[in-house]
Every structure is written in structure tokens, then in C-alpha cells.
């Protein structure tokens, strides 16, 4: 995923997420070992209001503020098992989908 600041976010399988600058410099790495990320298996990501929404396999939605490195967890019963897709609908809305339904905020 490329965010609004042109940073590149990737999720190597079972290794959390990494953030790179446009030129490929590693800016940050988030795993369960070094951050509040609650699951290293990341299925999808999107951006909303300068926050990265991270859909995990069984850990719900982790919301990262890259400026402060603070992470919060949004647990929605229907989406906790495996969030399949996340879309930035517009700068102030996100829609996510899982096997049991969809959610927007």
C-alpha cells in the first residue's frame, strides 16, 4: 500500500508490517515483538486520517498512528477472525469486509 505521504507499506507473511520511503529506505518495522501489533499475519491495509488500518488474521483491526507509533485495536465480532479487504472510501471513511459481513466507519 502507498499512503498519502508516498510511504510504501508491506506485510511479509507472518512478519508484521514494514514501512519504506519512496527511495526504499526502511522507515519502520512493526511486529508483535517490537510494537503493540497483536498479530503478525497481516491480510490487508488502508489509510484513513493519517492512520494505517491493519487487518489481521484473528487479531481484529489494528490502527496505527505512524507519527506516535501508538497502536489501538478495533475488535468487531464479525471481523475478528479474518479481515479480507479494507478500502479507504474517502479521506474520512474506511470500509472493511470479512467472512461474516462488512463494516464502515
Textual characterization of the structure:
With about 100 residues, this protein is mainly β. Helices cover about 0% and strands about 50% of the residues. It has strands at about 10, 15-20, 25-30, 40-50, 50-55, 60-65, 70-75, 85-90, 95-100, 100-105. The protein has a four-stranded antiparallel sheet with strand order 4-5-6-7, with no helix packed on it. The protein has a three-stranded antiparallel sheet with strand order 1-2-3, with no helix packed on it.
Q: What is the structure about, briefly put?
A:
The chain is mainly β. About 0% of the residues lie in helices and about 50% in strands. It starts with 7 loop residues before the first strand and ends with a strand.
**Overall helicity:** under 10%
Instruction: Based on Cα principal axes, name the global outline.
Output: globular
Q: Report the strand count.
A: 10
The biggest beta sheet is recorded as:
4 strands, antiparallel
Uncertain regions: pLDDT < 50 for 5+ in a row?
Answer: 87-91
**Structure class:** mainly beta
Note the quaternary state here: single chain
In whole angstroms, the N-to-C terminal distance is 20 Å
Strand percentage lies at: over 45%
Total helix count? 0
Mean residue pLDDT: 81
One letter per element, helices H and strands E, the order comes to: EEEEEEEEEE
Strand order of the largest sheet: 4-5-6-7
Radius of gyration, taken over Cα atoms and rounded to an integer in Å: 13 Å
